[in-house]
Predict the structure.
Amino acid sequence: MTQIDIPIIPVQNPRDLPGGAVEIAPLGTERRRELIERIKNLLREKDAVLVAHYYTDADIQKIADETGGMVADSLEMARFGNRHPATTLVVAGVRFMGETAKILNPEKRVLMPTLEAECSLDLGCPADQFVPFCDAHPDRTVVVYANTSAAVKARADWVVTSSIAVRVVSHLLDQGESILWAPDKYLGSYVQQVTGADMLLWQGSCVVHETFKAKELAALKALHADAAILVHPESPQSVIDMADVVGSTTQLIQAAHDLPNSTFIVATDNGIFYKMKQSAPHKTFLEAPTAGAGATCHSCAHCPWMEMNALENLAAALESGDNEIHVDEAIRRKALRSTQRMIDFSQGLDTRRFYARVEA
């Protein structure tokens, strides 16, 4: 077999850098209330709608809920922004989400609370290395996860999210296509295992999901024998192997509602608990542990870049119009092809119950 060299791009968690991640100072009750009201007023004044990811701060998710916006995963964020009539989309999440909104809505202004909120999967798949890698494998259909830059999407044939990745790859497999997948190696391996597709995997990973530990998860499960384990497929295989349900964020929320268990151990970003508790208010949710050799906390299950979205910078962006997302038009047009395929493929699909139930 021919040896294939796949680039590995090291990405540091900002918490590990000198000075650590950006610290968001706690707000007093009155200041928090003032900011929430100001943001709601600004959304009305600016003809803007707030689209927030499940991993953002609970206050931001609540504002989106209460103002006619959307709290969702990457796929639903893209679909909602594409069909909403507001002239300004405010995307609370990480940069690739803002870029995706701009790719689909070039006529709209797209703002973000901060442009410093990155994603380790995006950073670990730079276009200047990914494009020549694709060019070296012209026989493969290029499928990229939504967690990528506009420039990477521009080189792709398909964009997918975790909610439809298995279905899209199964569709391509039925057409006899082999796949070049990027950037998440764990999600790619999971899709490959489920579909049996011929997939060449880029070696990226999420700084949050990669830290979940199977040994510590088993110990937590022993303390909560009746708990169901919900796992996002960006997690390591050893963690996926312990799951009762594997699925996207939306699918895990749905599973928490559907399953009869009263307790769930959740292996994804803990920002999801806001919506999980709304969906199943009488159930208990526990963070899957990230503790282990070299760990500095019991569970660091929160994206340091998602954490950069805060009430103060959200209000400031709405007031000033700063932090606007711009995508080069030539790149946007190319990226639209693969991104629109994702939207078209998912049209009419209710992906919430596409989760994989693992039977004992």
Q: What stands out?
A: The first helix runs from residue 29 to 45. The chain is about 40% helix and 15% strand.
